[in-house]
Amino acid sequence: MCGIAGFVSPTLDAGAIPEVMASMLSLIHHRGPDDAGYYLDDGVAMGTTRLSIVDLPMGAQPMADPAERHWICFNGELYNHVELREELRGLGRQFRTRSDTEVFVQAWAQWGLACLPRLNGAFAVAIRDVLTGDLLLARDRFGKRPLFYVDGAAGDGPGGGAPDGRGGEFLFASEMKAFQAFPGFRFELDPHELASTFAVWTPLPDRTPFRHIRQVPMGGYLTVRDGRATPGDYAALELDVPPFIGSEREAAAFVREALRESVEVRLRSDVEVGVYLSGGLDSSIVTKLTTDLSSHDVRTFSVEFEDAAFDESSSQQVVASHLGTLHSSIAVSHADIAANFPAAVYHAEVPAFRAAFVPMYLLSRHARDAGIKVILSGEGADEAFLGYSLFRETLLRASWNDLSDDERMARLGSLHPELSHFGPANRARLKGLFEQFAVERLPGLFSHELRYQNGRFAARLVGRRDEPFADLLALTEATAGYAALSPVRKAQWLEYKTLLPGYLLSTQGERMSLAHGVENRCPFLDPAVVRAAASVNLRFDDGFEEKAILKKAFWGELPESSLTRRKQPYRAPGATVFKEQRPDYLDLLLSDTELRKIDGIDPVFARKLVTKIMATPEGEISTKEDQAFVYLLSTAVLNQQYVLGRGTHRYTAPPAGFTVRTIVDHRTSRRPGPAGHELTEAMPRTGGRR
Question: I need a labelling partner for 486 at 20 to 30 A (CA). Which of 94, 259, 386, 574 fits?
Fold first, then answer.
């Protein structure tokens, strides 16, 4: 795991390029604290901060193919690098290292764009072709690793995110904060994107909440040639696959083997691999397979909450004891969440509708302090195997008019047993709500329309009257084959394209792990596992038993409680924490003056929401109000950190002795500049302007 950053700039003074490059890398040093280096050419620079996991002594970056035509900066892991290496050797390619980085650059030299669909991994990559001058950016098919860019040649004038006073600059980085080091760059919130983010719960696949900053979408690439960036896709989401042919028993064995192989390749590492154990089915399966495949005792890590409503520690202990893992947990209090919220937001870089990412920030720090660099986790299982109640809800609403009242009430009772507002006392009201949403209102978004009511409320925080779902509607309409999908597969598509990469894998996952130099790997997000799940889903059951085939695949191998308990979604306390703890940064919402500093936020509606939240007793705050409040607070903190450039962020200097090296300098007209920086002596300014 690493962080990458770089730029194409025809006008930046040559003597300033090394310092700018070193400063960009210093801002993301937490992603790769083991090493850093950069590549320079006329008007082009790119670099990597490295977290050493495979081929520790020989995997330094940037790296070139043997002909030194292609130079690569690689963030991530190729899980099938062993198989690809053998295939490339058979084609005559010679290797100097055991690193997956070299496999990637050799695959690119051999196959070009055609190499991307062959890759099974989690990655963001930049490849420079010295001969043509092209720069390629690409991202893995599920969006596990982030990759952001600013295209100054796309009509962005001075200011507003684009570097001031110059055209043609193209910036890229694993995290947006690296752009702060580029001269003239400044952050500005984008009200249009904020409204969309609040409504959909995440930025759309190629968007961010900031003006002029975009991201390479999952399964996508970008070619920068002659000052023009051209996007493309190399991997479609494979949901509409042929059904599994065979018995239910054979289907369960098929799924189990796909998962076993997925865990096996994700255990390829020269450092110890641990597991995040939540106590639920998905992480228990990952832990079980890891203990089967590891030659040593497996270490597991989890979060405990002082608030019993969110705590799953008893289930975690049952699984850890059953599988014999070396288990360690961290207890998280309301005070811990409040104290660490600004730091977690700084690393998330986007507004969040829940505070659940903060405990994950603390958990990754706990794992790092225990000496762990690589973690396996269960993300992607619910999307692949229809684990969310959202899917059962979609099935119920789609069949609503074909059911009797008794059947409707029974199905309603089974949807959310963990939520009190789905209890018997509220069932009549819920019946009326479901009747209202039994017919599609937003074309193509039927499955998510109930959820999006909360998002529509949050979008009112932005003083705009346009439809906050307009861009998502345009995306689904433009996606080939989407209209022909069943309601449940449309629901899966939306989850894979929005909440999974935009929140679960990023804000709550990758960004919190890499804040402390811990790489997360997700066995359920192996292409073979996703295809296997798609082939068996709804093939042997009606979809109302949660992850039926997955449970059958591991029946008898896990504690019975892990296989029979209903899913308890990972949650953490929200608005109540900030009301109770009253951290200093809460003044960003309590002050009308501070509220008016957030571009695009309607201060009148925001003030009404904050006043109501502060006056409402715990337990009586509605879900939509709680989500809107956390959105508003996280946006206010982001505005302070990135736009105004002051207070509440937690940038830390690189560790002593951490240096960045000039790997290669191809510039034809070089000017004196720092080389082999000690980053503690080349610190960037971390404010909103540079």
Answer: 259
